């Protein structure tokens, strides 16, 4: 399958994301552009929320905008592709440091 993402990704293990909604979400991966979340409930494209987690031992909080929603093809529910909205230079550096091999 051809990769369509513009930014490289790095898998996040045991990541939990907090999005102000009644849907439970799990953080699957992160890039400089955004995140891939998994949810047991479908969210609408265009939904916005706040993401809060720890990356590389540092607290990271960002606003996200849901760009893509796709069924996972199993009982796990939905994959939600969300882009970051207005990341600060410090937040970009934190993600870049986390992404470094």
Quick rundown:
The protein is mainly β and 101 residues long.
Q: What is the makeup of the main sheet?
A: 6 strands, antiparallel
Parts with pLDDT < 50 across at least 5 consecutive residues: none
Structural class: mainly beta
The overall pLDDT, averaged over residues, is 84
Instruction: Give the CA-based shape.
Output: globular
Query: How much helical structure, as a percent, in the residues?
Result: 10-25%
Q: Descriptors for this entry?
A:
mainly beta, Thrombin, subunit H, 11% helix, globular
Description:
The chain has about 100 residues and is mainly beta. The chain has one domain (about 10-100): Beta Barrel (Thrombin, subunit H). The protein is built from 1 helix and 6 strands; from the N terminus they run ββββββα. The protein has one helix spanning about 90-100; strands at about 10-15, 25-30, 35-40, 50-55, 60-70, 80-85. A hairpin with a 3-residue loop joins strand 2 (about 25-30) and strand 3. The longest helix has 11 residues, at about 90-100. The model has no long low-confidence stretch (mean pLDDT about 85).
Secondary-structure map:
Elements: E1 10-16, E2 25-30, E3 34-39, E4 48-55, E5 58-71, E6 78-85, H1 89-99
Antiparallel strand pairs: 1-2, 2-3, 3-6, 4-5, 5-6
């Amino acid at each position: 399958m051809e990769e369509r993402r513009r930014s490289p990704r790095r898998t996040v293990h045991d990541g939990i994301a907090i999005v102000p909604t009644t849907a439970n979400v799990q953080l699957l991966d992160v890039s400089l552009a955004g995140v891939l979340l998994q949810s047991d409930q479908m969210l609408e494209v265009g939904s916005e929320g706040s993401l809060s987690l720890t990356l590389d031992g540092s607290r990271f909080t960002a606003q996200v905008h849901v760009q893509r929603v796709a069924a996972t093809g199993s009982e796990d529910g939905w994959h939600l592709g969300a882009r970051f909205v207005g990341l600060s230079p410090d937040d970009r550096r934190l993600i870049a440091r986390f992404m470094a091999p």
